[in-house]
Specification:
136 residues; alpha/beta; 9-stranded mixed sheet; 9 strands; 35% strand
């Protein structure tokens, strides 16, 4: 299943995050309620981040593909603010973050939030997902 890039947000960091909105795998991903910020592993799921395409593969027939090169990437800046950018350089950096971390946190929501409130996203039960490893 193809998910439109405008329904995603790739967030750079030590443990990168992939936010999904209206994803067809939402109900298959485990409900997430982690008020302590410790994100559980999504057993049976893997993520393959590439420059042009990102694949989130789940159990059985479940999974999705994202045209990554066209998707927005949220990057931190030197003055502790953030900027949303698109393009090969930003997606390559997000992919490097994912490889360094051995995976990404996948958070599936009904809609992308206007403000990234990690405490709310991880602890309120509105998101489904968890830490998804890169394939071996």
């Amino acid at each position: 299943m193809l998910l439109k890039p405008e329904n995603t947000l790739f967030v750079r960091g030590t443990t990168p995050v992939l936010l999904l909105a209206g994803a067809p795998v939402h109900d298959v991903l485990p409900a997430l309620s982690s008020p302590d910020g410790k994100v559980p592993l999504c057993d049976g799921w893997s993520v393959l981040p590439k420059l042009t395409l990102c694949v989130v593969d789940g159990p059985g027939e479940h999974g999705l593909m994202i045209p990554a090169i066209a998707a927005p990437v949220l990057e931190g800046t030197a003055d502790n603010t953030s900027a949303t950018v698109r393009g090969a350089e930003a997606m390559a950096a997000w992919g490097a973050d994912a490889r360094q971390a051995g995976g990404v946190v996948v958070l599936s929501l009904d809609a992308l939030p206007e403000v990234l409130d990690w405490t709310h996203l991880l602890g309120s039960g509105v998101a489904h997902g968890g830490f998804v490893r890169l394939p071996d």
